[in-house]
Amino acid sequence: MSWHMYIVEGRYKPPNAHVQAMYCGISKDVAKRVETHNAGKGAKAVKGYLPVKLVASWPYPDKSTALKAEHAFKKLSRLRKQIYIRHPETWNADKHR
Predict the structure, then answer these.
(1) What gap in Å lies between CA 54 and CA 8, rounded to an integer?
(2) pTM for this predicted structure
(3) Dihedral (CA of 87, 82, 80, 46) sign
């Protein structure tokens, strides 16, 4: 089973419900990881905007490569992240190291 970098989105609780939040992580089983997030047992950063939905996922051959991609993605601006989410075929982590 390969590793994946994934992006989930959710909305903050009122009074900030108009704000769309984004979280990037890695996992071998993305569907199970999203379930874990939605059960409130995932990353603490996600707990403020449950439930989350999976918006993008990219496969990687190993954990090291997935971690490097995650690091590169997290350094991008919010606008750039949204572009890659809408057009996942354009994402290339090597380009952003």
Answers:
(1) 4
(2) 0.89
(3) negative
* Type and span of the H or E element at 6: strand 3-11
49-63: per-residue pLDDT in tens? Answer: 889 999 999 999 999
Q: Which two tokens stand for residue 60?
A: 């990687």
Cα dist from 85 to 6, 8, 79, whole Å: 10, 10, 10
**For residue 21, what is the enclosing H or E element?**
strand 20-27
Beta carbons of 53 and 21 less than 8 angstroms apart: no
Q: How far apart are CA 12 and CA 2, in angstroms?
A: 31
Q: Which long-range contacts (CB under 8 A, 24 or more apart) does 93-96 make?
A: 93/5, 93/65, 93/68, 93/69, 96/72
